[in-house]
UniProtKB/TrEMBL annotation:
One Gene Ontology term of the molecular function aspect: metal ion binding
Family: Belongs to the iron/ascorbate-dependent oxidoreductase family.
UniProt KW keywords: Iron, Membrane, Metal-binding, Oxidoreductase, Transmembrane, Transmembrane helix
Metal-binding found in the keyword field: yes
Annotated Fe2OG dioxygenase domain residues: 264-394
Bias type Low complexity, positions: 63-80
Name the record gives this protein: Procollagen-lysine,2-oxoglutarate 5-dioxygenase 1
InterPro entries xref list: Oxoglu/Fe-dep_dioxygenase_dom
Stretches with biased composition (Basic and acidic residues): 93-113
Sequence segments annotated as region (Disordered): 51-121
């Protein structure tokens, strides 16, 4: 029976994402209550107490009314008959007048003061509370969330393939390159007969090393083969997918605190660096949320990857051939291929919009999408140049802030003596899962979701030209 994935990892290295996010949620709520409720109330009371003391010292002295009475004695006049007849009526009128006078006594009206209004919070206190709340919440999210600290600038080393499996993947790639070479030779012969010239992409397949793509990744080209758009066999892809499902998916899920279903490969390829040809790759950043790099060969000199936080470069191979298996992975909050009624969030708030690395990548994708719409048509966000500049600036600012708060670190998660046990345990756990009813929507997507550009809202902006040209290959997956 398989044991938890952490069993063969270095102790206390990976965070408990669920527990840390729960604690952070409580801290955020308490902080918000303090700045929104407690601080304004206490500060207002302290500010108003001196005024109340001054007011209490200024009490009005009571005033007395003196009534003057007439010294002239009153004489009673004998009422006439007419007065007698109206006596009862006059008495009643007098009584009604007295009642009205009693009800509208002006002296009582002066004593009845309206209830005091609740004290208002002064504007300076509101300003301090608002600023304090925003700064505190930002600092807590940046320093306490593992999505902004531990994984943001981390490089993690784990075993994924055995030596024999690496050799098998190399042989699979060489076979695909041979098919490319034969196809290019046939196309060259056809073009010569027809008096035509080969297109540059087909022509590059006949350059050394023959059969390998040379023009992909325009700004930073590599000598490589994509596992879908180049002729990898279906049985070989099935073998590779099984290894990725069994080992890479649960490993990434544990390291980055993500559901496997949120992981989608956007480009997967085998790269070679030859000392006699293209031997290195310049300093750059990848257009991905997560990048994987699996070393396949060791019979070379030089080479390796040098990191400067997000930036990295492929060091020059001085002898032999260095081959690696590379994957550019997206972390999707929603499935870009799902229909509208099935577009449910896969990520929690901490792993998406409150994760600075994730947000930075999404704004960079949004900027690229706006450039694509500008060149190929289409309207979204008004195609406003200010929005376009804002997206690019936000992506850069978020990256700079992330570099400030997140510490760059490299961790070897599995000791060399535990590598085989780690891989075997992952394989055993995969077999146990396969015996149960498995929901395919809960799995990572390695092949079918490749080579698309996404917008800020997670929808597809465009498909790569190689995907459009190999539509049937993607439909089969």
């Amino acid at each position: 029976m398989a044991v938890p994935i952490d069993t063969y990892m270095e102790a206390n290295v990976l965070p408990n994402y669920e527990a840390k996010c729960m604690v952070l949620s409580v801290v955020v709520i308490v902080t918000a209550v303090f700045w929104v409720v407690i601080f304004p109330y206490v500060a207002s009371r302290l500010l108003m107490e001196p005024e109340e003391v001054d007011t209490s010292k200024k009490k009005d002295t009571p005033s007395t009314d003196t009534a003057t009475t007439s010294s002239t004695p009153s004489t009673k006049a004998k009422p006439s008959n007419g007065m007698k007849r109206r006596g009862k009526s006059n008495k009643k009128s007098t009584t009604d007048a007295n009642k009205k006078t009693t009800q509208k006594d002006p002296s009582q009206a002066k004593d009845e003061t309206p209830p005091p209004e609740p004290p208002s919070v002064p504007l300076p206190i509101l300003a301090v509370a608002s600023l304090g709340c925003m700064v505190s919440l930002f600092y807590e999210v940046m320093t306490m969330s593992p999505y902004n600290t531990f994984v943001a600038r981390g490089v993690f080393q784990v075993p994924i393939l055995t030596a024999l499996e690496c050799e098998q993947l190399i042989n699979i790639s060489m076979a695909a390159a041979k098919i490319n070479q034969d196809m290019a030779l046939q196309e060259q012969q056809r073009a010569e007969i027809a008096g035509e010239s080969l297109n540059r992409s087909m022509e590059s397949l006949l350059w050394e090393p023959k059969g390998w793509q040379k023009l992909r990744h325009g700004n930073y080209p590599t000598t490589d083969l994509n596992v879908i758009t180049d002729p990898f066999q279906k049985k070989d892809l099935d073998w590779l997918q099984e290894k990725l499902d069994a080992r890479l998916a649960p490993t990434l899920s544990r390291i980055y605190g993500l559901p496997e279903s949120a992981i989608r490969a956007n480009d997967m390829f085998v790269v070679r660096y030859d000392a006699d040809f293209r031997a290195k790759l310049e300093n750059h950043t990848d257009d991905s949320d997560i990048s994987i790099n699996v070393l396949l060969t060791d019979d070379f000199e030089g080479g390796g990857t040098r990191f400067w936080k997000l930036n990295h470069e492929g060091m020059q191979t001085t002898k032999g051939t260095r081959m690696i298996f590379v994957g550019f992975l997206g972390v999707d909050r929603i499935d870009p291929f799902a229909k509208d009624d099935n577009r449910k969030p896969k990520l929690n708030l901490w792993a998406s919009w409150l994760s600075l690395p994730w947000v930075s990548t999404k704004f960079k994708e949004a900027y690229s999408s706006m450039i694509h719409r500008k060149e190929h048509g289409g309207v979204k966000y008004g195609n406003n140049k200010y929005v376009e500049a804002l997206f690019l600036d936000l992506a850069n600012v978020f990256q700079i802030v992330g570099d400030f708060f997140a510490v760059h670190h490299v961790k070897n998660l599995v000791a060399p003596e535990n590598a085989d046990r780690f891989i075997n345990n992952l394989d055993e756990a995969y077999r146990e899962r396969q015996q149960k009813e498995v929901d395919d929507t809960a799995k990572a997507t390695w092949f079918a979701g490749q080579q698309v550009d996404l917008d800020l809202d997670g929808t597809i902006t465009a498909e790569w030209s190689t995907r459009r040209a190999s539509k049937n290959r993607f439909m089969e997956l």
